[in-house]
Specification:
Length: 338
């Protein structure tokens, strides 16, 4: 019992992109899963964030949310131990985002890599919106809402957590200890490239999805781009120039790493053999996920029930935070009854 009361709160999330690929898995999920053992976890599907850069067509949101939840549960996010919820189902996120916006200097928002890249560098007029500029403000609200101690993220998200810390600090300095200052926890996993050697992305059609069958996975691994200098089987390769090696670092048992490097650099084996070893590791890694998925598929409404319960638990926490926030900021105490 006492262990549950001393658990630190964790919040993380991602936008609903639908079926999750190995990049999503290694970059986020794999880090979240073990943290469920000793943290009070909130895993959020950031559907409002998905609108910030894609507000013209929201039609795929429902199925993306469904697939994402199913994949999360398949790999081991456990609704018995963690709260899995949808951002837009907890309207307090909008309220807190609005309030934090009052404290947000424009310069802080404009300092976002994505804003600088899309709006300033590329000059995409359709991205020059109030909502997109507010991306880090909304993300700060997500985190502060749960008084999260820790936010496990990839490198690209650190700038957002820093802004969140700044905003929380700014409010605290003026209004007392309103928010806990969150810390980020960085994933050190390598970034996995798509099987064509480019960034793994749905739009490039180069993803390996965690829901794929063994056969489908092998078909994609088989054609993975390798060290371009290794043209013939007799040419020695350089693992550092090969994304297959990045995959090995994540999925293949450490005890085999020496053998892989040796066989590559001496042309002791061909890339196909190397990929076979990788495939076997990945296939074994996702066997439990396949089993869980098969069990979940026998309960068609399960994902909806999981979200309903998660949304309810998240809302409860959010409402508690917001009543403190309103009180400390001398706002009208609208807790529903007044
Ligand atoms: N910006 C994150 C991403 O693109 C998603 C996100 C939204 C998030 N709110 C968050 C991540 C709060 C961590 C904490 O992946
Ligand atoms: Fe890459 Fe393996 Fe081929 Fe070396 S042997 S180039 S690590 S696939």
């Amino acid at each position: 019992m006492s262990s549950t009361t001393t658990r630190k709160t964790l919040l993380s999330g991602s936008r609903p992109t639908g079926r999750q690929h190995l990049g999503n898995y290694v970059g986020a999920l794999a880090q979240w899963i073990p943290m469920q053992d000793d943290h009070d976890c909130f895993f959020m599907i950031a559907d409002w964030h998905a609108l910030t850069n894609n507000y013209n067509d929201t039609s795929s949101l429902p199925e993306n949310i469904q697939y994402q939840v199913l994949d999360w549960m398949a790999v081991g996010l456990d609704p018995e131990r963690a709260t899995i919820f949808v951002q837009s189902a907890v309207k307090e996120h909008a309220e807190l985002s609005l309030l934090l916006g009052m404290f947000t200097p424009l310069g802080l928002a404009e300092r976002c890599t994505s804003w600088k890249d899309l709006v300033i560098e590329q000059g995409l007029e359709e991205m020059r919106t109030y909502g997109f500029l507010g991306y880090p403000v909304l993300q700060s609200a997500d985190i502060l809402m749960y008084q999260a101690h820790v936010v496990p993220v990839g490198k690209d998200q650190v700038e957002h957590i820093e802004k969140c810390q700044d905003l929380a600090q700014k409010v605290n300095v003026r209004y007392g200890e309103v928010f806990r200052i969150p810390q980020w926890k960085l994933s050190h996993a390598p970034v996995l490239l798509g099987n064509d050697g480019r960034k793994m992305s749905k739009s490039y059609n180069n993803c390996i999805y965690i829901s794929e069958s063994s056969e489908e996975m092998w078909d994609k691994i088989r054609v993975m781009v390798t060290d371009p200098a290794r043209i013939r089987k007799t040419d020695p390769g350089n693992p550092e120039k090969c994304s297959v090696w990045d995959y090995h670092k994540v999925f293949t048992d450490d005890s085999r790493h020496g053998e892989i490097v040796e066989n590559c650099t001496t042309a002791g084996w061909g890339c196909m053999q190397c990929k076979k070893v990788l495939f076997e590791a990945i296939d074994a890694h996702f066997a439990p996920a396949r089993e869980r998925r098969a069990a979940h598929e026998k309960q068609p409404g399960l994902w909806k029930d999981v979200l309903m319960e998660g949304n309810r638990k998240a809302r409860e926490r959010a409402q508690a935070t917001m009543s403190v926030v309103r009180e400390k900021l001398h706002l009208y105490p609208s807790n529903g009854s007044e």
